Automatic annotation (TrEMBL):
Keywords: Aminotransferase, Pyridoxal phosphate, Transferase. It comes from Mauremys mutica (yellowpond turtle). Residues 128-469 form the Aminotransferase class I/classII large domain. Its cofactor is pyridoxal 5'-phosphate. Residues 19-46 are annotated as: Disordered. This is Kynurenine/alpha-aminoadipate aminotransferase, mitochondrial. One of its GO terms (biological process) is alpha-amino acid metabolic process. Pathway: Amino-acid degradation; L-lysine degradation via saccharopine pathway; glutaryl-CoA from L-lysine: step 4/6. GO terms for molecular function: 2-aminoadipate transaminase activity; glycine:2-oxoglutarate aminotransferase activity; kynurenine-glyoxylate transaminase activity; kynurenine-oxoglutarate transaminase activity; methionine-glyoxylate transaminase activity; pyridoxal phosphate binding.
Amino acid sequence: MPTRARCSLHRSRAEAGLAPTASGRSLCAERGSQRPPAGQVLRPGPRVAPASAWRWAEVMNYSHFITAVSAARKASPIRLLTELMQKSPPSVISLAGGAPNPNTFPFKMATITTGDGTAVNIGEDLMKRALQYSASAGIPELLSWLKDLQKSLHNPPTANYSPDQGQMEMCVTTGSQEGLSKVFEMLINPGDNILLDSPTYPGTLAALRPLGCNIINVPSDQYGIIPKALKEILSRWSPEDVRKHNNIPKFLYTIPNGGNPTGTSLTTDRKKEIYQLARQYNFLVIEDDPYYFLQFDKPWAPTFLSMDVDGRVIRTDSFSKILSSGLRIGFLTGPKPLIDRVILHIQVSTMHTSTFTQLMIAQLLQQWGEKGFLEHVDRVVAFYRDQRDAMLAAADKWLKGLADWHAPAAGMFLWIKIKGVSDTQQLITEKALQKEVLLVPGGAFNIDSSVPSSYVRASFSLSSPAQMDQKNSIFSSNFLC
């Protein structure tokens, strides 16, 4: 790289607002008494003990994590102008913006009725706003509601930190997949090491592979990532490597509840151990949790976000499984210096999530309140719990002795290991499909999809109990006997 360009990129890191962040024992002790009380519905997560004696440092320096390209991104003046106009009084006359005149839009008003009879009314004035450009981080009323929800459910230690100390920040994304993609773009250089537990969500692998990173598989079992195995992998790096940030893994990615495809959920004790290792080896934790609201038993599991005294957790949430998958509403929570970077990536791609979708969801959530929202979640969970039980009953009836599985504690999937079959690819794509039984071969979820897998993923979200029984019967009698 030419000297001038190299200096420019180095300078841009300092200009990006990525100042070192206080964290660890001293900050935890200093801020502990200022944290807000836990919500009334779910218990806050446990705080973690101090990391080991040779932990990398008592600061978070986010510039170690972001790429030079991400550090070089600057806020769009036009995007900032859009946000300024939205905060301005109606008396302001703007000759600056390039927004189209809303009087030319064909849509004038709408009323949306929910299953419980709640009516979401979008009148003419609100419709004009709904059809217009909006802030890249999300519309203010939705962001405010979501921040209150995160504080109530997770009680993040960072919620009361100052912005330069890794204060909790949020942004709305076009589904959690967009959020993940932007986070990966922000963090990964070719050749970087990252950690994840495979098998995992193919969308994650599809986003990671083109970035040229080294994906290190962390062994897992029915309770998620095995901390002992993670510690063994990390032992490749010495304290000196960590201090110099010498190619240590940048982050660990995991789906902690109802993992796709395995249905596994990380235990609280394992999360604590993993977070301690993250502190010791100075890597971030990407907590991809689209099935958080589909946990079948209460109290819901404490999250990495609830344990994050350092500001090293980036959490993705989604309304796809509980409100609508087509509305494409996800949200990111994490330390402000990193979330602000993500927003800059959004500014130059999608610009913002659909304003109409955000306003519709915000109107509904404001009418429901947190209590009404969680009551809706409980109804959704009850449905999927019954679906899971029907799938387990069908599997027990038709697959016992032919396959192995574990009952998922969350999510939509049953991960089935077929006995006596080394690879399910041909079994599913050719034979089973001819009998109109569609399952996903396990190899699709491997880091290397060409590696044989004896597993299949069965979803219990759409089929009726009778259909589950019928398809398990066909699968058993035609292919496994």
